[in-house]
Amino acid sequence: MNFPAYLDRRKSFTYGVxxxxxxxxxxxxLTYPFFEERVVVRTETGTVMVEELDEISGEMVRIRRPxxxxxxxxxxxxxxxxxxLDTPQRTFRDAWMLLTDPGGGRPSLLDHIFWSTLRIVAxxxxxxxxxxxxxxxxxxxxxxxxxxxxxxSFLRPLPSIAWVPLALIWLGAGEAQKLAIIFMGSFSAAxxxxxxATLRVDPILVRAxxxxxxxxxxxxxxxxxxxxxxxxxxxxxxVMAIGWTCVISAEIxxxxxxxxxxxxxSREISKTSWVLVGMASISAMVLLLDTLFHVIEKKLLPWVxxxxxxx
Amino acid sequence: MSLLSARGxxxxxxxxxxxxxxxxxxxxxxFVVLVGASGCGKSTLLNLFAGFERPSEGSVALRGENxxxxxxxCGMVFQNYALFPWLxxxxxxxxxxxxxxxxxxxxxxxxIKTVGIEGFGDHYPTQLSGGMKQRVALAxxxxxxxxxxxxxxxxxxxxxxxxxxxxEELARIAREEGKTVLFITHSIDxxxxxxxxxxVMTARPGRVKQELANDLPxxxxxxxxxxxxxxxxxxxxxxxVRQEVIACGREG
Amino acid sequence: MNRIFALFCGLLxxxxxxxADTPGKSDAGGTADKSATNDxxxxxxxxxxxxxxxxxxxxxxxxxxxxxxxxxxxxxxxxSSSDRLNALEAGNATFASLGEVAMLxxxxxxxxxxxxxxxxxxAPGNEGLVAIGVDRIEDLKGKKIALQNLTSIHLTIxxxxxxxxxxxxxxxxxxxxxxxxxxxxxxxxxVAAGMWEPHFSAMRNLPGAKVLGTDKDTSIYKKFQxxxxxxxxxxxxxxxxxxPARAKRLFRAYFEAVEWCRDNPDDLIGVVVEKTGKEAxxxxxxxxxxxxxxxxxxxxxxSDRRMFGQAQVAGDLLVEMGAIAKVPAFRDWTQAEMxxx
Lengths: 311, 252, 341
Description:
The structure holds 3 protein chains of 3 kinds.
Chain A: H1 9-31, E1 35-44, E2 48-53, E3 60-65, E4 68-77, H2 88-100, H3 109-140, H4 142-155, H5 164-171, H6 175-199, H7 203-211, H8 216-245, H9 247-251, H10 259-268, H11 272-300, H12 302-305
Antiparallel strand pairs in A: 1-4, 2-3
Chain B: E1 4-13, E2 16-26, E3 31-35, H1 42-50, E4 57-62, E5 65-66, E6 74-77, H2 89-93, H3 95-99, H4 105-115, H5 130-143, E7 148-152, H6 160-177, E8 180-185, H7 188-194, E9 197-201, E10 208-213, H8 228-251
Parallel strand pairs in B: 3-8, 3-9, 6-7, 7-8
Antiparallel strand pairs in B: 1-2, 1-4, 4-5, 9-10
Chain C: H1 2-20, H2 23-26, E1 42-48, H3 55-62, H4 65-68, E2 71-77, H5 81-90, E3 95-99, H6 100-108, E4 114-118, E5 121-122, E6 127-132, E7 144-147, H7 152-163, E8 172-175, H8 179-186, E9 192-196, H9 199-204, E10 209-214, H10 219-224, E11 231-236, H11 237-242, H12 244-263, H13 265-276, H14 280-287, E12 291-292, H15 297-301, H16 307-320
Parallel strand pairs in C: 1-2, 1-3, 7-8, 7-9
Antiparallel strand pairs in C: 3-11, 4-11, 5-12, 6-9, 6-10
Helix pairs in contact in C: 3-12, 3-13, 6-16, 13-14
């Protein structure tokens, strides 16, 4: 066996498509109503009028006594049935409906995507703009690092949803609250990645730069920052994805627009297909933003992507 | 007055005494090679001259002035190149002048020619072979026009053929530019090829054990290695070093 | 590789083990003549929460009513109505009380795995719309109202707005749940908010708060004397059909508990306080609004005159709100003739 082995782009793509095809085929298979189940179908044929005591009003009233006809019928069942999983046809049809005409004045899928993306990206930017300078400072000054570290250790493991009650009390139910939840979910990760990236700069580069005459003031901008930047940027890519995991906690309260809100509300009306659409949209957006990030990365850090020599 | 001088230098790291009572003088334009067993303090001495460390006792001086900190007049060439990966070859070479605001594109081009990497000016370090990287490192140091070149086993990481080529290049450049060089190596062949004077250091704590003048004719090429004078010098140096290697081994 | 496989098998077995104690399913193929004289009581899971509507089950367990009829009932808490419904369909719960809106939505989505047995209480005035700084419903136009999406309070507010010439699209709806709604009203994110107890009281007690209307003020209440999205009792269809006699026995037990609640209001307070840990005064005030409907009352309750009529109107409202496509034929899910036998 060859290790490591890679496929060229064309083959990778083909296999990838086959993989998705397999999943779709499995989905169709699992939800196709192969089996017939003999059921008793009840339909009301009530025509009997009776007089009964109405306990609420205390009077005798005439009501239609329900009578049912039970007809032996056949129900088609699949291996997996709703609510566990809907058929792919149904799901795609509902997804299309959500995209084009959700009805009842509800926001369309594009509205949901737009609002969630806006919130996540904004929260991410706020997180990064605060975390990167602070992280670099913490990497440079061990006393600062030691002082702030316990606070970060406390904040880091907390899931974003834990912040919902406090964010609501302090910031209300507007966009500020949502941004705060995304911020709290992603800030400590961004900080830690930045600190690590800066600490891991090869000290010999610092030495060489000093030997070439760099002053202490120039050291940060001319050496540390460019040296740490590739790791910081790849850390931030992860932070963006982390931001997306906060989307439901962020939108659980105070909005009707957004993918998190869509997923959460759809379960109340048993619209599993909309839940799936919401999930798929989140995945798609993460992929899209990741690609965008990659493009920016290539522009910003050309030396990371140049193919190196093995020498 | 010597260009570089170390007088009674002792350097301690905690309990370890790396150098003790070391005296060394390097004259202007000299090519001095330090040889010795591993861990005997050669790199430490170089670091003291570069200003990365301060001596625990004694003094190191450049043209009579005490070396008080990192000074670009003592330019260092590192074993693993220490090139800045985010800058191109031109960017790396021009780094020092750029810091002082005296960027000179013509000078960068001239240096590229001097070290022999024409055509690679816009490449990044990851695209270069080891030998080319070291050439760039050399050019980068030279761009600052230092008075001394401090070389810490710069060719140790290269393959034998590249190494030979670069040795000849360095000798040529040092001669052409009139640079003073303090060069560390484990290879006695390298020492004999490059050095005007060869200094053998003792095992830890390091001190100067023996100094030899290298009277082999220049320009020196690989076929010199078969001449009797060469073998004479080599065996003398090796004998001196071997004793220290054994002593080092005993110390553990 | 082998270790990973073993771990996977272990997890699989664990997962199977967990589902193995859903008692309802184990009786699916059981014999038809299980009766109360059977030594082993039937193990039943009830899906509930901390809402007062589940009180009959608390009482039934506490006072041994279920045991008397041969059932061992476990009360399991599920967060939302839709979760309880899913549990019924999956066989993780045998019967449950939940909100009518979730039930109608599930019916509209084609879910057939449950029966709509009854509506066990009328408790109007337990949910309503509270506003701060706004005196009339008409003045809510263009303002923000906080509510819990697609639940009874959503319907109540829609109806109240309708009665005052407004529709849901004339206001901005903010979604929240439970205590977050109180918070949104308190800090001014919304000028009005609606919720059921105990959050309704919390809202009413905020400084400057005014109750603009409750479910008692809606057209549904005026016509059917019940709320816009009352509690409903549903049952796992498979479990029911496997042994209808046993199912009827369960519901006789259940309604005996309901009738006990009706006939012993003071003792009921004690049961609720014990179960929920709330203050006795608070419980007493809340329960004062409850009318419990026993077995016989269901005859009139589960008819066009009351619940079926109400469900049609609520269904129409849900269609208007875009929650469902059309009102389902909910009668096909009912077992109303059970009460006449």
